[in-house]
Structures are given as C-alpha cells and as structure tokens.
Design a protein that fits this description.
Helix content of chain B: 10-25%
CATH class of the largest domain in chain A: Alpha Beta
Radius of gyration of chain B: 16 Å
CATH class of chain B: Alpha Beta
CATH topology of chain B: Folate-binding fold
Number of helices of chain B: 2
Shape of chain B: globular
CATH architecture of the largest domain in chain A: 3-Layer(bba) Sandwich
Structural class of chain A: alpha+beta
Oligomer: heterodimer
Distance between the termini of chain A: 95 Å
Number of domains of chain B: 1
Strand content of chain A: 25-35%
Bound molecules: zinc ion
Largest sheet of chain B: 4 strands, antiparallel
CATH topology of the largest domain in chain A: FAD/NAD(P)-binding domain
Structural class of chain B: mainly beta
C-alpha cells in the first residue's frame, strides 16, 4: 500500500474500509477516497487506453481537469466517461476501464499507435473530402468505429434528477481561501448569498497543499471549520457542496449540477442529482486555477502527473503515488510539492528546472541543497520511456549533456492558468499576461467579480487588498486575514512550452492534448498546411475538443503556435471555452421532463369511458383520442374501421369530438374582427346560424378551418382543428392587439370547458329525438348549419346541426363535468337504432369519401383555398381579411399549381399509400416528372373500392384522365384522376 | 437565457415569452391596389441586423400581451421595452458600435477571434 500516516489525515476515514471492483478484481480503499486515490493506494497506475492510439494512460491529475482517467461505472447503469479523479468510491462499486480490448494490459487497438502515420492531423477532413470517398464508408469507418472512442453508452438508463431554482443577490463560485473570506465578509449583510463548491470539503488549496501554514494564527483546518460554521449559522448564506457550476449564461444565469450521492451508491427511487438554475445580481468567481503540463517525448506515460495533483494526493487523500518521484518545472508552483514531500519524510529523486539557479525561489533552492536532492538547473526533460509505465527519463542539463535517470514517477508543472472557463462563458474579455504567461480576466461583460487566482492574482500577500477593493461595492467591513506561508508568496515562471526530442520514432510522441491524442507534430503539420488561425487549427487537429476542453493543455498549444508563427500569444488569440465546464448528463438536463412526464397528456372528459370500452388511442398533438373501438382483441384496425364506417352510413355513429378547439369571441366589434380573421363573410348571417370557415396566413395559404357559430354580431363561437387551437387563439390575439387595437373584441379558449359529441348517420334523428324529447329536430325547426341552446336536466347545452361525415348529423356541446351523463344516455338510447361509437380513423375515412379536407393532412402550408376548389368560401366583397391580397399574387394565380383531386385505382382493390407520387408514365425513368402526391387514402366499404385524395399540378384540368402512382419498389399503379368527392355529390343526405 | 421585463407583469424568465420578429412592420390592407412588391415585402421580408433591433415579444405563458423591445443582437442586451401603442424610441438614443456585417463589439459578443 502507498499510504502515508493516515492518523493525521482529516479527510479520509481510515477506519472505514471500502471494497470495490476494478476490471473484475477486488480492491480496498477508505471512506473519502476517489477511485483514483483508492487505486493509487493499491499501486494501480494504469487506468485506461487513449482515444486514438490506445496508448496506456495513468492518472495525470487529481481533479476535474483530468484528461485520461475516464472509467465506466458498471454499478450505476454503466455510466461511462466518469472521472476517476473525482468520483468517490463506495462499498460494492464496480468500475471498468475504457477503450481497451480484450484487457487493459493487453490491448489489440494499441496497434493503432504503430499505424499512427495513418491518423495525422486533419485525417477525418481529408478522408471525407478526398477522392476516395468510398474508402471512408467501407474501410475506415467500420475500423475506426470499433477502435476509437471513449466509454460505451449505457444500455438501460433511468436517472432521477430534479431541477431547483434560486434567485439570490450574490453567488460565490468556489469555496477556497478567497471564496470563504468573501462569504465570511458577507455574513449578516442584507444580501442573500449562495456559496457553491464542487468539493464536499470547503477550503480548496488549504486542504490540497502545504502552501499555507496558518490563517489568522490558526491551522488552516481549524480556520476552515470555524469559518464554515460561522457561514452555516448565518441567515443569509446558503452553501451548496458537491455542486459544479457548469454554465454561466447571459444575465447572471448559472447552471450548476449537484451530486446527491457522493461516496454512496445512488438509490433508484431517490433524486440522484439536482440541476440548480440560479439567477443572481452579482457573481463572484473564486474558482481558482488549473496547473498546466508540458510537452516532451512520451509525456503521456503512466507515472507522469502534475505537481499540485501529486501534492493533493498526499495532503488530501493520504496516499503517495511514488516515494521517489522526479520533479520537473519551469515555475514556482513546484515548490510546495517539494516542501510537502520533505515534510512527510520523503524527497524527490531529482529536481529539474528549466530556470537558472538564481531564478529559482531561494527557499526552494535552499531546501533542495539542504536535503541533498540532485538538482538540474537550466535543464529540460527530453523524453520519458518505459513499457506501460514510466521507467526512465532523459535530462538535458545546462551543459547540453544528456543524463539518464531511472525513475517510476515524474511530477510536472508547466505553469498555472486562472480557471477562466466560466468567465469566458459569461462573455468576459481575457488578456495575455506576458509575465505570468497566461490569459487572465481583463474586463467583465456582466456583473462579475473575480477573486484570487481565478482573477490571475497569484500573490498570497495581495489577498486582503484585492478583496477589500473589489467587495467594497457591498459595503463590507474591510477584512484583514493574516497568512503564514510555507512557500514564496509570489508566482514566477519562465517560458517553456515544449521540449523537442533527440530523435523521432514512430512510437514516441509529444502530446499536446492527451484526451484526443493530438501531438505537437499535428500542430506543426496543421500550420504548414495553412491552418494558422487558432479556431481553424483547433478543429483541424481536434486539439482541446475533448470532454476536458484541454484544461491542462490548451494554453500550451497557444504558446507553441505563437512560437511557430513568431507572434505574441495575444496575437494568436484564444479559442472560446464553451458550456458546460465539465460533461453534464442529459438525464440531469431533462430532469422530471422525461418518460411519462416528457409532454403533458390531454384527455377528453369521458376518457375513462373510452378505456373501459376497449378504445385504442391515437396521439393528436397532446391529446389522446380514440382511434377505433375493436369489438374483441382479434379485430384489426382495418376490420374495425370497415365495420364502424359501414355502421355510420347504414345506422348511426357517435364520435367524441371534445378535443376540437373552441374559442369564444365577444365585443362590440366582434363581427368586424371575425370578417378580418376568416375568409368568409359573416355579415349577412342570421344569429343562430353557423358556417364552415377558413383561416389563411398572410401568404394566402390555408392555416386552419372550423365552424363559426354566430350568436349575435357581438358574440361568436369558433371551432378549430384539434392541433391548431392554440395557434388560432394566438393569431387572433396578436392581430387584435397589434394590428387592430381599435377594435373592441375579446377572445378566450373554451376548449376544455365543453365536450363535443358528433352523432351522424341516417338514424340520427330517431336517436336524438329520444335523448332530447322536448327539442323539435324537424328540418323546418332545426335546419342544416343552425344551432340552438337548450337545457338538459338543468345542464345548459348547445346543439349544432352540422356534419363531417356526409350523413345528417348533430353536434352536442356539453359542459365537461356533465359530459359522461349525456354521452352514456346517447349510447344507451341509441342502442336500438344500432348506434355505435367510432374513432378518428373512421372519421377520416368518412370525411374523405365526402371530399372534406383535413388541414395539415391534405394541406401542408402551401395550398390556397383556390387550390382546394373552395373559392365559394372567400368573401369576395370583403375589403380585407388575413391573406386576401396574397390570393392574387403571381404565384397563387399560377395555372400549374398543385390542386386537390380524387384518385381511383383502375383495379379497385389495388392499395395506395399516402405520400406516393402521381406520375404520367407507366415506366419509371429517371428523372420522372412528378405531378404531385397522395395526401389521404382509404379502403371504402361503402364505395367498394380504394380511393385517395391527392394534390397534383394543374389537377382540376386533369380530371377524367389516367395517371400512375409510384410505389417504393419503383412499380406503378394505374389510377384515374377524378373529382375530390366520392359520396352523395348532391348533398341530399346532409339536409335529409 | 434572458430576463424580459414585461410592461404588464414585471421581469420574468425568457421561457415565458415568445419572440414575434421585427416590430413596426406596418400591415398594408388587403386591397388589390397594393402592388405585388409592397405586399410581398410585408409578408416575406424582415430585417435581421447585427446590433440594434426593434422586435416584438409576447408574454405567452403569462398575461399574453404583445409589446415591443429594443435589443442589441450582437450582445443580447435588452435596451428598452415599451408598449405596443408607445412611440418607437429613436435609433440614435442607443449607442451601436457594431460594424456590420462582420464586426464585433469589443465586449459581450464572445467571438474573440473575429475581434483580434
Ligand atoms: Zn406579462
């Protein structure tokens, strides 16, 4: 075991042993361990294979910036691409390494590494665009799909996530030293504050390094627990732990994801994660910094790690990845690692620094000398070598000599970057700091304050000054924190991005992006091919396009490019970090809007009757509508529809039409308004009559249809299509408010308030007279297209004589809460006359026989009333209505527009299909001119043959001619083009 | 995600609203005297500038009222919200430093490389 003395470690519960499995082998860790710290405890250093070349990889970091150590959590629905460096273990956890076959140790895909000349920068682009396009489909893609990639998508999945909304004055992102000081200074102020930290322990660098010896004369641990207690006891500050802010949107809108099961197995029926949606007046970014790596030959070998990560494993997790590591640095961030090692009783095997002796921190220099650590100044690591793990390194010293050092571990530091991801997401401006060699926040676009290393302020002695200056806007009392440090307070760095190798071999690579396997050679090649703009270069090489967004390496790439182009880094520019900061699962984004809650279901007031009578349902928009009513489970839809439709034509049927949109329009100018909205003229209509009406868009195309009932010039009730109800109401409201605000008119949806039952068939009158004996249903008293209000057992109802089937029919409008009572009465009174309920499919068949269109099925937003042969519905005397002027546009008066026609197959039993093309020639030659397509088709038991409606070019003039319908098998069916009406052309039934 | 200050309800989340495109587009009446071009421009042509834009919004999941808004499309800043019957604010009352079509404001567009 690589444990340190754990008794003084406050983070790991070393008395709580935890068993878990990695690649089928059982290991033990402690409560508080991440997968990475637990595996390092067990001396496991190989964690996965790389994306493209399948090279062996280890733990490079100890946090969310990790590019390599992604694992699949088998015990959590096989969740892929989980960062082993942050995911905490629990008893019984099962983990698998990714992207290897058959095993991590023996991986066949690593042969890709040998074929690496095949995968140069721009490989995908060249393969797609190149002359051998078939190569891609037939050869490259199957191979690459098998070989490349990260984890496997889970097979079954049901995450439980919920969303939580916050509205606060100040949100502090990051509860490290600066975040805690800021929060403490806001205790008991008038501000509501959220303090968010990704860790389960607040304190950041105080927990993870030995940099700070004491805070206000307390140990860092004591200061943290005291401060956190004060914050927790305050009334105005709430702390969110285990919560990662992933997104910083416009108007200080933050998205954060909270893991509710850190260190324990997620329960199936409990919320596993909470997505916090935060609105805040001010954001304080105190989310720290990220250490960079360096590029040299084979800088990806397991056994290479960042300095601060190594130190975090020691300080935070009580595990030492190696007792004899070599340290390589170009900046002062390595000092604290050396200090920590010596404090714990170890020392580096060698210390290598690219800086000269006088530029190294004097304290560090003394520490190295005092402990007899071999020191290489002005020196660089040329390469690292080993089989699946680091075994030796080559160091070029100040004299140019190359020294070989045998070692199993190497700690690297290439500098530090403020964690500017959230700041750039918020559209803040960055500026290049030539002294600290990094991009720093320069100008915020939103009310954003950056503090500490997140603002590029790397000097511990300046913390008080910065906080007091920046938080003065909140009127806080000046803070005076006293820090005692173990390392130098300032940050110093010397430029080094890449060490060029001694000699190139195929196996040896200098990586610039570990997750996407991009090498510095790829960068050179891209530039030589002209991709010297940084955004082009990023996409061409895929550099920093992995799930880690190149957190430890993207600035290095800018440095290398700036050297190659001989430009300053700020002239090269930077690519943009985009949300989310780290991968965010779709399950968390979906929250409760998944599965049965994905979309609301709307149901008719008599939905339960349909269920108990065996209805099969169809989704129409959000509505559940009975599709057909099979008499037993063996009856197919086709059989049911044949039976139901025959029954309507011979006896009578009743349809639940409650889903139809209903809009009530009132006001002094209601008549004028309705005349403007619909094509028809309602002026001469008598109260108590109704009319079939069309609504157009301003482009002249049919948008909706329905029946308008005129109660008076100041009161109308309109029906709309089931799917169009909201759009029609929205359109009416828009015009009433924006175009004709001078009209006195109000409108309201009454769709849910009334159920609608459509009874039709030759025996309708017998039935309805029995249900409503006091109403006179004779032709004289109740003619076609009129309506009357009646009382039925104290229930006010409206009866409309109208028909969508071609039979004589009535529609009964009933308040929803009384609907079932009346429906059941209709069904039971109608039994002796053969009345049966029917569904939407039969309704479609019956209306098509009669040539009635369905907006959205026979029209598609490109059909005018004239195309449908509905010229009679246009109020020609009206000065204006929606879309009127468009009906005389050059395009709408064109002669060869597609027009609605009927289609009959010559062989009456030949099956047609919706969407089939109508063509002129029997033989299909390519290209075949297409006349149009079939919009509706059915098998009619009444007519005894199949028939269809279609829209075809110049259709009205082609009536009576022959054409062909094409099939997917490229065969043709001979058809005749006919009038789009097949049943009761004289309309005798409607008025019977 | 914007916060939109509905003139009738106060500030609400963008998800409660729907955008209605360019504002102050006058609808010609439907008479035949209107030429094809004039009518066609009303039906089909809308401005889509980078920078200051007069647009319509409706509080569709709220009071269902339409209102007008001036927004800088390059930074998403809402500069002014006013009722349908209120006077349109003058363009020169807003600063607009974007050089269209490819210019970027110095701050707020997020498109760094174009700026450099
Ligand atoms: Zn409102």
């Amino acid at each position: 075991m690589s444990d340190l003395n754990l008794t003084d470690n406050k983070f790991i519960q070393f008395h709580q042993k935890i068993g878990f499995k990695f690649d089928g082998v059982k290991y033990y860790g402690y409560k508080g361990d991440t997968i990475a710290s637990a595996l390092l405890r067990n001396n496991i250093k190989l964690i996965g294979r790389s994306f493209k070349y399948h090279r062996p990889r280890g733990f490079y970091t100890c946090g969310i910036e990790e590019p390599n150590a992604l694992v699949q959590i088998i015990s959590e629905y096989s969740e892929p691409n989980t960062r082993a460096t942050i995911k905490k273990i629990y008893e019984g956890m099962e983990i698998e390494s990714q992207n290897r076959w058959p095993s991590l140790e023996t991986d066949i895909g690593s042969i890709n590494n040998m074929f690496s000349p095949v995968f140069p920068a721009g490989f995908y682009y060249k393969t797609f665009m190149g002359p051998h396009k078939n190569f891609w489909k037939k050869i490259y893609e199957p191979i690459i799909r098998k070989a490349a990639g990260l984890g496997k998508p889970p097979k079954e999945f049901k995450a439980v996530s919920t969303h939580l909304y916050h509205n606060v004055d100040i949100t502090i992102v990051g509860g490290g030293l600066n975040g805690l000081i800021a929060a403490k200074s806001l205790i008991d102020t008038k501000f509501s504050v959220l303090l968010i930290d990704f860790d389960d322990r607040l304190g950041g660098i105080l927990n993870n390094s030995s940099k700070v010896q004491s805070v206000n004369n307390q140990t860092p641990m004591d200061w943290i627990s005291e401060t956190v207690k004060e914050i927790e006891n305050s009334k105005n500050i709430k702390i969110l732990r285990n919560t990662l802010v992933t997104t910083y949107n416009y108007i200080n809108h933050l998205i954060a994801i909270e893991d509710k099961f850190v260190g324990s197995r997620p329960l199936k029926d409990k919320v596993n994660s909470t997505l916090h949606k935060i609105r805040t007046d001010q954001v304080i970014l105190s989310n720290g910094h990220i250490e960079r790596f360096l590029s040299f030959q084979n800088n990806d070998l397991p056994g290479i790690m960042l300095c601060s990560s190594f130190e975090k494993y020691m300080c935070r997790y009580g595990v030492i990845p190696s007792k004899e590591t070599v340290v390589f640095s170009n900046n002062s961030n390595s000092e604290s690692l050396v200090f920590s090692l010596i404090k714990k009783g170890f020392k580096p095997k060698a210390y290598i620094d690219s800086r000269s002796g006088e530029n190294i921190e004097p304290d560090l220099f003394d520490l190295i000398r005092k402990n007899d650590i071999p020191l290489y100044t002005n020196s660089q690591i040329k390469g690292a070598y080993g089989n699946k793990k680091l075994q030796k390194i080559l160091v070029e010293d100040s004299s140019g000599g190359v020294n070989e050092i045998k070692t199993d571990f190497l700690c690297l530091s290439g500098g530090i970057n403020p964690d500017v991801h959230l700041f750039t997401q918020s559209k803040g401006l960055l500026d290049w700091d030539e002294k600290d060699l990094t991009y720093k926040p320069a100008q915020a676009f939103q009310p954003t304050i950056t503090l500490g290393s997140a603002s590029g302020q790397f000097d511990f002695n300046a913390i008080n000054k910065e906080i007091n200056e920046k938080l003065v806007v909140f009127g806080i009392k000046p803070v005076q924190i006293k820090l005692e440090l173990n390392t130098s307070h300032k940050f110093k760095i010397e430029k080094l991005w890449e060490v060029l190798p001694q000699k190139q071999t195929i196996w040896s690579k200098s990586f610039i992006d570990l997750q996407n396997d991009v090498t510095t050679k790829d960068i050179r090649q891209a530039i030589s091919e002209g991709f010297d703009r940084i955004e082009h270069l990023k996409r061409y090489t895929t550099n920093s396009m992995g799930t880690d967004q190149g957190k430890i390496s993207s600035i290095n790439a800018l440095g290398i490019v700036s050297d190659l182009l001989d430009k300053k880094v700020n002239e090269v520019g930077t690519t943009i970090y985009r949300p989310p900061y780290a991968p965010l699962s779709f399950a968390a984004i979906a929250g409760r809007n998944s599965y049965e809650y994905y979309d609301p279901e709307r149901k008719s007031p008599i939905h339960n009757w349909h269920i108990s009578n065996g209805a099969v349902f169809e989704d129409v928009g959000q509505w559940k509508r009975p599709w057909y009513f099979p008499i037993n489970k063996d009856e197919t839809m086709n059989d049911a529809v044949q039976r139901e439709s025959k029954n309507v034509r011979e006896n009578a049927g009743v349809l639940d039409g409650s889903t139809l949109g209903k809009i009530e329009i009132k006001g002094k100018d209601a008549l004028a308004f309705m005349n403007l909205i619909y094509t028809n003229s309602f002026s001469k209509m008598k109260p108590g009559t109704s009319r079939y009406a069309l609504m157009l868009g301003e482009d002249g195309m049919v948008k909706d249809d329905g029946i308008i009932c005129k109660i008076s010039d100041e009161h109308f009730i309109a029906t709309t299509t089931t799917g169009g109800a909201a759009t029609v109401l929205g359109c009416m409201e828009e015009y009433a408010q924006t175009e004709w605000p001078n009209l006195n008119v109000y409108m309201n949806s009454i769709t849910e308030q009334y159920a609608t039952f459509n009874i039709s068939g030759p025996k309708t009158r017998n039935i309805i007279e029995k249900v409503f004996p006091e109403v006179n249903f004779s032709n004289e008293a109740f003619p076609f297209m009129t309506f009357q209000f009646h009382e039925y057992e104290d229930t006010p109802i409206r009866i409309l004589r109208a028909s969508f089937t071609g039979e004589m029919g009535y529609e009964i409008y009933v308040p929803s809460n009384q609907a079932l009572k009346i429906w059941e009465k209709i069904i039971s009174f109608g039994k002796e006359f053969g009345l049966k309920p029917y569904g939407t499919e039969t309704m479609h068949l019956l209306r098509a026989e009669k040539g009635y269109i369905i907006v959205g099925q026979d029209t598609d937003g490109s059909i005018t009333p004239l195309d449908l042969g509905l010229d009679w519905m246009i109020g020609k005397s009206k000065k204006d209505f929606l879309g009127k002027r468009s009906l005389i546009r050059s395009d709408t008066v064109r002669k060869d527009r597609k027009q609605l026609v009927g289609i009959l197959p010559t062989n009456k039993n030949e099956k047609l299909e919706e969407g089939q093309h109508i063509i002129l020639d029997k033989e299909i030659k390519t290209p075949t001119p297409m006349l149009g397509h079939i919009t509706s088709c059915y098998q009619s038991p009444t007519l005894g043959h199949n028939f269809a409606l279609a829209v075809i070019k110049n259709g009205q003039s082609l009536i009576g001619t022959k054409a062909f319908a094409s099939t997917p098998e490229l065969k043709t069916i001979e058809v005749e083009i006919v009038e789009p009406i097949f049943y009761d052309k004289e309309n005798t039934k409607l008025a019977s | 995600m914007l916060i939109i200050d509905c003139p009738y309800c106060g500030p609400r989340d963008q998800s409660e609203f729907s955008n209605g495109g360019e504002a102050h587009v006058k609808r010609p009446d439907g008479s035949a005297e209107i030429g094809d071009r004039e009518w066609g421009e009303y039906v089909f042509i809308r401005a889509n500038p980078k920078g200051i834009f007069y647009e319509r919004w409706v509080h569709s999941h709220g009071c269902r009222k339409w209102f007008n808004c001036v927004r800088d499309t390059s930074t998403d800043e809402i500069l002014k919200i006013y009722k349908i019957d209120e006077e349109r604010p003058k363009l020169d009352s807003f600063k607009n430093n974007v050089k269209t079509p490819s210019g970027e404001p110095n701050l707020g567009s997020g498109n760094f490389t174009v700026k450099k």
